[in-house]
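Ticket #4471: structure output looks truncated?

Reporter: J.K.
Steps to reproduce: submitted the chain below (150 residues) through the standard prediction queue, then opened the result file.
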Amino acid sequence: MKVMLKQDVHGTGKAGDIVDVSDGYANNFLIPRKLAIPANAETINAANIKKAAAKHRVEVQRRNAKALASNMSGYTVKVYAKCGDNGRLFGAITGKEIAAALSEQYDISLDKKKIRLDEPIKAIGSYSVVAHMFEQTDAKFTVDVLPLEN
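Returned output as attached by the reporter:
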């Protein structure tokens, strides 16, 4: 019997998949627990439309991420921080501060978790930073850490 899974079922398939299972498994387990519905032409068509829409949505996100990454490659973000006389910061510059500076200076909303720092920035200077935008799409930009004027 062909059924369309409404939820992920371990060992059977993922939500939205159309699988061929035994009649007893479908009638006694999957359908009563509302894990699946019998697959007919209408449900198969609906599942195909959902999969195509999800694929299109991912492709649009990929294109937008690539466009944003190519624009960001030339950006220089200025971050101001308190520092001592020797140029060492009181604390460190993290992805949170860099994301806030990007939002303020270039009106780009970027999650702080997407900014990849090899090690925390703890001194005044210019640093190359990578932001992971999407699968296999990274944006490289420069962060200038400047002393905060009182």
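Triage note (M.O.): checked the attachment and the full token line is present. The two ends are 74 Å apart (CA to CA).
Status: closed, working as intended.
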